[in-house]
Design goal:
- This protein has one domain.
- By secondary structure, it is mainly alpha-helical.
- The chain is globular, with a radius of gyration of 14 Å.
- The protein is built from 6 helices and no strands.
- It starts with 9 loop residues before the first helix and ends in a 9-residue tail after the last helix.
Length: about 130
């Protein structure tokens, strides 16, 4: 099982992976591309190799969880730690990016919406959903 430190740059990547896998348990190409792009924005100057390594670590952590309860626990702990580490504007940016990731495959599943709302709540960021 991967070692994990919530201060690690992969913490944000882990939230992205967990969000993307919430709906159907898979990562589609559009989601992978968006995750790498978004993590790159959080790590200016990182090489493509570094970004892929971070994504691999995040995926390994997700896959290493023995069950969904463990995944939820990891998500909550990661979001709580990021709430402490990130300024409000960065937490708002993170939630906005999670929303964008949820839309990456063209539609938002209920599980993705629930994930974004729960994570936003932990990060102390207000989110309003459209009913359209």
């Amino acid at each position: 099982m991967s070692t994990w430190n919530e201060q690690d740059p992969a913490a944000i990547a882990f939230l992205f992976v967990a969000c993307a896998r919430t709906a159907d348990g898979e990562l589609v190409e559009a989601e992978l591309v968006r995750i790498v792009e978004r993590v790159g924005q959080w790590m200016p100057g990182a090489s493509r190799e570094q970004l892929h390594e971070i994504l691999e670590r995040a995926v390994a952590l997700y896959q290493g969880a023995p069950d969904q309860r463990a995944v939820i626990g990891l998500v909550e702990a990661t979001a709580e730690r990021l709430r402490e580490l990130l300024a409000r504007e960065d937490r708002e940016r993170l939630v906005t990016e999670l929303i964008g990731l949820a839309y990456a495959d063209g539609h938002v599943e209920q599980g993705e919406a629930d994930f974004v709302l729960a994570t936003a709540r932990i990060l102390d960021v207000e989110v309003a959903l459209s009913t359209d």
